Amino acid sequence: MDLPTRIFYWSLISTSSVLFGYLGFALARAIGFNKDDAPHAAVGSLIASFFITVDVWAISVTKPWGSQSMIGFWELFGYVFVVTAVIGALRYLLLTFLARETSIAEERDEALTLREQPRLARRLPDEMGEDILYLSVRDHMVDVFTEAGQTSLRMRFRDALDEMDGVPGYRVHRSHWVAHHAVQGVERDQARVYLRLPDGRKVPVSRNYRPELEDAGLI
Questions:
Q1: What pTM was computed for the model?
Q2: Contacts 24+ apart (CB under 8 A), 121-130
């Protein structure tokens, strides 16, 4: 085949193969296989391979590119099935990954929606959001940390803690309070204990407040 004929031939093969591939997986779903399950990928690949083989065979033996050296139908089917099965497996893995990520995101969003927002959140600028992770006292100011960043409020630390009602958390130091959902892990430096937050910050835990954290199973 000359170059223009070769380009037309492979364009026709590729386009029709994609269409028959979709048809194969659609028929597998119509038969009753769940599109998110591995059997659907296997059966869909098998059906699609048959249709694509017929398609490739019919195109390849048609003039002007008909060849006397065309391989046998079932040998061609074997090659097509290998390629289609690999594509079907990759498609299944991708759909599984996307479904899992979507589920995790939906669960996280639902948890944030259902979580009771504290009164202290009403004092924050709108761009700070309402998901308070950590409080720290500094002179006459209380530093409030959310996923969006940090802001400071002029108020007593005791009053700030009172306004965190409804949010599970722990006072871990006379100057620090941490929300339960913000604890990413525990680090120890000899006798010192720290809670690790989502932004990498380490909050010290004083001895007076360790029993509550031990009861909660955090340390």
A1: 0.48
A2: 123/153, 123/155, 123/163, 124/151, 124/153, 125/151
Task: Please say whether the beta carbons of 219 and 188 come within 8 A.
Answer: no
* Sheet containing strand 202-205, strands side by side: 185-189, 192-196, 202-205
Amino acid letter at 53? T
Residue pair 205/172 in contact (Cβ under 8 Å)? The answer is: yes
At what angle are helices 38-60 and 3-31 packed, to 10 degrees? 140
Query: What pLDDT, on a 0 to 100 scale, did the predictor assign at position 139?
Result: 87
The tokens describing 70, both together, are 């065309």
Q: Which residue has the tokens 């199973």?
A: 217
List, for the chain, all residue ranges whose pLDDT scores fall below the cut of 50.
Answer: 114
**Gap between the terminal Cα atoms of the chain:** 73
Rg (C-alpha) for the chain, rounded Å, is: 31
**CA-CA distance, 158 to 137, in Å (whole number)?**
10
Per-residue pLDDT at 67: 57
Please, which residues have CB within 8 angstroms of residue 174's CB and are 6 or more apart in sequence? 206, 208
Contacts of 185 (CB under 8 A, 6+ apart): 195, 196
SS3 209: helix
What is residue 139's DSSP assignment? T
